[in-house]
Specification:
Blueprint lengths: L5 E6 L7 H14 L3 E5 L4 H5 L2 E4 L23 E6 L2 E6 L1 H12 L4 E6 L1 H14 L4 E4 L15 H22 L2 E6 L6 H9 L4 E3 L7 H13 L5 E6 L13 E6 L5 E3 L2 H11 L4 E5 L11 H19 L5 E6 L2 E6 H4 L9 H9 L4
Parallel strand pairs: 1-2, 1-6, 6-7, 7-14, 8-10, 8-13, 9-10
Antiparallel strand pairs: 2-3, 4-5, 11-12, 14-15
Helix pairs in contact: 1-9, 5-6
Length: 360
């Protein structure tokens, strides 16, 4: 086993319930091996600016169920996206050198970044280009990192969406209304599809399958013809209307550090189109409610397994990998295999299930 004295951890990208449980597991497992844990604040900003804190058993006591991250997070990117010879490449900025200096100064033997494909993409580039010893942990409510059945935080977000749909059903039924519920999901429809199935959605719209307004209208009218005077339409923020050329509804001019155009508004866009066709409806955007709150038991267990396994992989000298769940097994997935396949689309099994029970 590799001799490790100090491990650094950071949490980047969007937050989710379960991150703190993962931090706790990393610290508790590391303490068993007399390894010190250094937590960098606010994602990649922490090692860039050498903003860090020592994490101990006392500092992680009581954080198991808490949502969010005690380390803070950001979408800081030490690389920049450029076009070369018709291809998109990531070039290092001066921030990469600052990260390397911080890791050397603090004598970090291994780094455990917790986040989605953007955060893990930076880790991958640091590993391949600069030999930084990284073990990633996939954390995103979108569940769209390839190589793992589930990402940390997805189950907790799914529980929030399902409860919201349960609550909306009573109001929709009482007032004989159509509700459009917009949920997160930029490139993949995991939250919309599984949440829609679990919460009894009548129409589910995901990025993987472009939709037309007329098709949605026909689905609602079919329910009316059966005497069902209300409907719940679940739509992922990245759903792609054919009327817009199969492109998502985006907020003009808003782009993050990783080049992602900020999405949002498809629920209201769809409501306007349905009203033009004579159908009144209401819109509920769950937004950041999906990220917050206490972690579900599943996510607490997954976080604990992921955190402990990340330390184990580092001890065994397995770097350039991320921790993944496949079936019941925790596995080491090479970042070079997982990230080129991300974002991971929804499993067709669930699309088929939705159709089998009569859901669009």
């Amino acid at each position: 086993m590799a001799e490790l004295k100090r491990i650094g951890i950071l949490t980047g990208g969007g937050d989710s319930s379960g991150i703190n449980a993962c931090i706790r597991a990393i610290v508790r497992r590391a303490v068993q091996e007399n390894i010190e844990i250094i937590g960098f604040r606010d994602g990649w900003r922490g090692p860039i600016e050498d903003d860090a804190v020592s994490l101990t058993l006392d500092s992680v006591s009581g954080i198991l169920p808490q949502g969010g991250t005690i380390l803070g997070t950001s979408r800081t990117n030490p690389f920049r996206k450029v076009q070369k010879d018709g291809k998109t490449v990531w070039e290092p900025t001066e921030k990469v050198e600052r990260i390397l200096n911080t890791l050397a100064k603090r004598k970090i033997d291994a780094l455990i970044p917790i986040g989605g494909d953007d955060t893990l993409g930076v880790a991958w580039r640091l590993y391949e280009g600069y030999k930084v010893k990284v073990v990633g942990i996939p954390q995103t409510i979108d569940n769209d990192v390839a190589g793992t059945d589930y990402c940390l935080g997805f189950h907790s977000a799914l529980a929030v969406v399902t409860e919201a749909l349960d609550r909306l059903h009573t109001t929709a039924q009482s007032h004989h209304r159509v509700f459009i519920v917009e949920v997160m999901g930029r490139d993949s429809g995991w939250i919309a599809l599984l949440g829609g199935i679990a919460g009894g959605g009548d129409v589910i719209l995901v990025p993987e399958e472009p939709f037309s307004v007329d098709e949605v209208l026909r689905g609602v009218e079919a329910r009316l013809a059966r005497g069902r005077t209300f409907s719940i339409i679940v739509v992922a923020e990245g759903a792609r209307p054919l009327e817009l050329g199969g492109k998502p509804v985006a907020q003009e001019g808003r782009v993050d550090a990783f080049g992602h155009v900020q999405l949002g508004g498809v629920g209201y866009w769809l409501a306007d189109r349905l009203r033009e066709r004579g159908m009144e409806c209401r819109v509920v955007v769950l937004g950041h409610l999906q990220r917050g709150g206490i972690a579900t038991p599943f996510d607490r267990l997954l976080a604990t397994r992921f955190g402990a396994a990340a330390v184990e992989f580092a001890l065994r000298g397995k770097f350039g990998v991320m921790v993944g769940l496949r079936g019941h097994d925790i596995v080491a997935v090479p970042l070079s295999e997982a990230l080129p396949q991300s974002p991971k689309p929804v499993d067709p099994v669930f699309l088929e299930l939705a159709r089998a029970i009569g859901v669009r």
